[in-house]
Amino acid sequence: MKQPLKMVIVLSFILCSFNLMNSQPEKGRFIQASIGLGSSFALDESEVYGSGFYAQGEYIFGFTKWFGVRPYAGFIVTDTDENEKYIGQEYAASSAAFLIGAKFRLAAPIPYVAPFVETGIGASLGSFKTITPFTNKEKSGITPHIPLTLGLAIGKRHRLELALCYYFHTTAEHATGIAAIGYTFPLN
């Protein structure tokens, strides 16, 4: 298992071990809108990357103040960045996909700055191109993905969020990472 993935798993367990209480905005239903800068990369050890744009909307069911379920829909578009190491090579790490799925959130009870972790399962409709010295995959259509998000809910009601989101598209040997900012709107 790669070292960064081990660190993410350990951090997830640490966050889940807190006495979780007050980190969802509130009990109830909300809508969240997020935008961010996206990056695409291969799941191998190559240095081939892409960059682009990400947007997502979530419908939030806040069952308790520490646990919620979040159906989501969004999209990511990235294009391969130039890398001086691979000039003249046709390597690529790009994506253009619509994302849909559901994830659950566990949050820690820290006032004004509440750390959280989210994971779930989803599907991507679009195309992924992963061509590196170790991988040669072009995948289009519907593919499964696993979302993983680490973030902070900020403010008195935790409505502003800063997050690092990852979508692992294992059948395409591809992943996308996003630095996102979001805001939660109450529906009540």
Q: How does this model look, in words?
A:
The protein is mainly beta and about 190 residues long. It has a single domain, classed as Porin, CATH 2.40.160. The chain contains 1 helix and 8 strands. An 8-stranded antiparallel β-barrel has the order 1-2-3-4-5-6-7-8.
The second-level CATH architecture is: Beta Barrel
Question: What is the class in the CATH system?
Answer: Mainly Beta
Q: Helix amount, in percent?
A: under 10%
The largest pleated sheet is described as: 8 strands, antiparallel, barrel
The oligomeric status of these chains comes to single chain
Percent of residues in beta strands: over 45%
CATH topology: Porin
Mean pLDDT: 85
- Span between termini: 44 Å
SSE order: HEEEEEEEE
User: How many distinct beta strands?
Assistant: 8
User: How are strands sequenced across the largest beta sheet?
Assistant: 1-2-3-4-5-6-7-8
Q: How many domains would you count in the coordinates?
A: 1
Dominant shape = elongated
Please, how many helices?
1
* Low-pLDDT segments: 17-23
Rg over alpha carbons? 17 Å
Secondary structure: elements and pairs:
Blueprint: H1 3-16, E1 28-42, E2 49-62, E3 67-80, E4 92-107, E5 113-131, E6 136-154, E7 160-169, E8 174-186
Antiparallel strand pairs: 1-2, 1-8, 2-3, 3-4, 4-5, 5-6, 6-7, 7-8
